[in-house]
Amino acid sequence: MGPYDSAISAGSSTCSPSSSAKPSEIDGLLAGAGYKVRSTELHQVAQRLERLETVMVNAPAEISQLASDALQCNPSDIASWVDSMLFEFNQQPVSMPSDLSDFSDLTYIDGVVSPAVNQTVGNNSWMDNRTPQQQELAQQLTVVTAMEEDSGIKLVHMMITCAELVQRGELPLAGSLIEEMQALLTRVNTACGIGKVAGYFIDALSRRVFTRTPQALCCAAGWSNDSEILYHHFYEACPYLKFAHFTANQAILEAFDGHDCVHVVDFNLMHGLQWPALIQALALRPCGAPFLRLTGIGPPSPDGRDSLREIGLRLAELARSVNVRFAFRGVAASRLEDVKPWMLQVSQTEAVAINSIMQLHRLLGPGPTRASAIETVLGWIRSLNPKIVTVVEQEANHNQPEFLDRFTEALYYYSTMFDSLEACSLQLEKAVAEIYIQREICNVLCCEGSARVERHEPLAKWRNRLGAAGFRPLNLGSNAFKQASMLLTLFSAEGYIVEEHEGCLTLGWHSRPLIAASAWQPIPYQTQHQQ
User: Fold this and answer.
1) Helix, strand, or coil here: 514?
2) Pairing outcome for strands 291-298 and 471-474
3) What's the mean pLDDT in 276-286?
4) How would residue 450 be classed by pLDDT, with cut points 50, 70 and 90?
5) Which residue, of 195, 239, 260, 408, has the fewest CB within 10 Å?
6) Counting beta carbons within 10 angstroms of the beta carbon of residue 393, is it exposed (0 to 12), middle (13 to 18) or buried (19 or more)?
């Protein structure tokens, strides 16, 4: 039995990830996890890995200690280390056969286990110059790297197979496969890469399969009371929330130009992190600072404190220090759909901005009640006639009804998100930010019905929905793009990319957009009827 046969037969003798997941999706998942191999070539890789297992039988006893040391590194880094070690002897590394040009992470596998390749590289002079100890060390490192590569690829396939079993309701088989994955997880480095991602996704699958009410794990008090703390650490660890705040603030600042009385309604106050920058920008307006009203919506404090008021007092102190007239009102609500427009006390004499940072997707859901929540909220937003509505949402499609589709999309999306977090040099912030992301993953995969609130949808769907609700897009403009680009200079990583799409901005990691910002304005009722 080959290495991939065992992974699939553990779940079902008839099902396969490819039965529901397209090869292109598998390729995307493997690429996102850092593996340069295509699904159509996995059989060829499996044959070489079988030969590798034969070689491992004769591996020395010291391989266990070697594995313990080497697994602290990323597999691709180990290969690079071996490469540099060979160059220290003024020699050339093993040349890769042309038929394996895409397997850059597996460069050294066939050099050890394939007789044909050994025959080819045996003519290179550097092979003769290496001492037996150097050759043995290179072989041992190859074995460790190949073991982790093999386990990582098998984990991806097993997770997708397990998600397919969950979708089909075959929970006993899914549970058996989860136990195999948990055992296999011990053979990979869970500190980074696919090992870390697999750990979180296997945990979510385990909660869904083995827990009678998995949604309770995501909605219990312990999962919500500290959300503001997690939010703050996520804010510090990576630029996504900063991008959202900077971009929205710039659009709001431009919309308030020329107005002396302005009112911002924030759908999720969360420590008020967004507003010090706007207050300072309003203080520097050439025409003078306006009177600023801020209405912050947030959940009731579990300990009875008026936390919204405390945040308002801190913002009021800042506004006073920069000579901005300021008034704050807090609206405590567990759900956004519980907010009524009269609670906001909006005046017709003020310019209004509605700010939604990753909140509107929580209004999406099944059933007639939840289905109307988004329409209801968008309806009363329009009735307030705001100058601008700023919307920032995850650029993902996690609101799909089929579990396998949702799982595959989430695996690809959060693999990229975790990859970007590796650029964070603040270890505490990064660790807590990963918990923030883990809870999102749990809600996406473990919960159903009204308990599943992380129903992210891509920008294209929000365009259609907001357009149908009577809003027209506003171009965020070059200033917002410059602000976002300047923000990225604060981060040393070069993988973050800001792009403009039809007046909207996205922030992503390399080629994958992860968050999208847009601005909207209500179409006057008379104009809409004429159209």
Assistant:
1) strand
2) unpaired
3) 96
4) confident
5) 260
6) buried
